[in-house]
Write a structure and sequence with these properties.
The protein is mostly helical. It is built from 13 helices and no strands. The radius of gyration is 20 Å and the shape is globular.
């Protein structure tokens, strides 16, 4: 990571936030025709296949003498440790995460699930700091706290934990832990290999067992009643929400670090809220509007904290 301004990466992360936020409403409509686990399995298969073709294309372009960004190709050899890391990251970051997320959302309320997932940036920043991976500026912590409070107002105000939803809440919490492990566990890999390769290979590794486990449900689906819109939405969700957004995510982790990249996920519930209001006609209350303002304020504060820390590092004697 460098002290240079990174507004280009910030713009890509904002695009990722928009895609992931809109994706909630897209897949919610798709679930009416295809159950969550089979839908997720098919998405992963499409995403993994796309990554496989992209990795091959990047390798062929490099072998033909083309110049590629480190986002798409690096020349570092694949070591035994790299292979082990790719294996467990694929199983944790795709198989376990996607399974727990889909199962958790199905067994608890949307408010509970969104609030729990909203804690991901704080979990990543705290874990990263405890492991000594990166130093977190005080203003970043303030921004994370403000954003987390905003998420509570947006999706968690009035929600209750435990009770009949405790199994779903627990699964969503496990999915957050999986995503934290996936993000932090790959920092060494993406320092040597391209985000395209790391993201693609881990998705391929996770998609194979996921599809096999979901195969019995897939075979029971009446495919004749699945509309063309759902098929288009499934493919676009795979290409945008999985392929493009995952690539942006790991590019951010490579260039900015996991804690500073993860703070952008605080804004995802805001996009999801607005999309649901426009598309699904769900009302936006005054409480949710206050929460949205807090989330955006927290994101701005963490961005200032990152800039201030970068300037301090640049001015420090070496």
């Amino acid at each position: 990571m460098t002290g240079r301004p990174s507004w280009g990466i910030d713009a890509l992360l904002v695009l990722m936030v928009v895609i992931w936020g809109v994706n909630y409403s897209v897949i919610k409509r798709c679930f009416a025709e295809i159950p969550p686990q089979p839908f997720n399995a098919l998405r992963l298969v499409v995403g993994a296949g796309t990554f496989y073709l992209a990795i091959r294309a990047a390798r062929q372009a490099r072998e033909s003498g083309g110049r590629l960004s480190s986002v798409f190709y690096t020349t570092a050899p694949l070591t035994t440790r790299d292979r082990i890391d790719l294996l467990w990251l694929g199983l944790v970051g795709h198989l376990a995460y996607q399974s727990c997320f889909a199962g958790g959302v199905g067994a608890t309320s949307v408010s509970n699930a969104a609030l729990i997932i909203g804690s991901t940036p704080v979990a990543i920043a705290t874990t990263s700091a405890l492991l000594g991976h990166e130093r977190i500026a005080p203003l970043h912590w303030v921004g994370a706290a403000v954003a987390l409070l905003g998420i509570y107002f947006v999706v968690g105000h009035g929600s209750s934990f435990g009770g009949a939803n405790w199994k779903g809440d627990a699964l969503v919490m496990v999915s957050v832990a999986c995503w934290v492990a996936y993000t932090l566990g790959a920092t060494r890999l993406i320092a040597r290999h391209s985000p395209l390769y790391v993201t693609g290979m881990t998705m391929i590794i996770g998609a194979i067992p996921y599809a096999l486990l979901a195969l019995p449900q897939i075979l029971r689906i009446e495919w004749a009643v699945v509309s063309p819109w759902t098929w288009v939405a499934l493919v676009l969700s795979a290409w945008l929400a999985l392929c493009l957004s995952y690539l942006i995510w790991y590019t951010g982790v490579q260039r900015l670090g996991p804690a500073r990249t993860s703070i952008y996920s605080n804004a995802i519930p805001i996009v999801a809220l607005v999309t649901a209001a426009v598309w699904l006609h769900e009302p936006i209350t005054a409480t949710k509007a206050i929460g949205a303002t807090a989330v955006l304020t927290g994101l701005f504060l963490t961005r200032l904290g990152r800039s201030a820390q970068a300037q301090h590092s640049a001015q420090r004697p070496r």
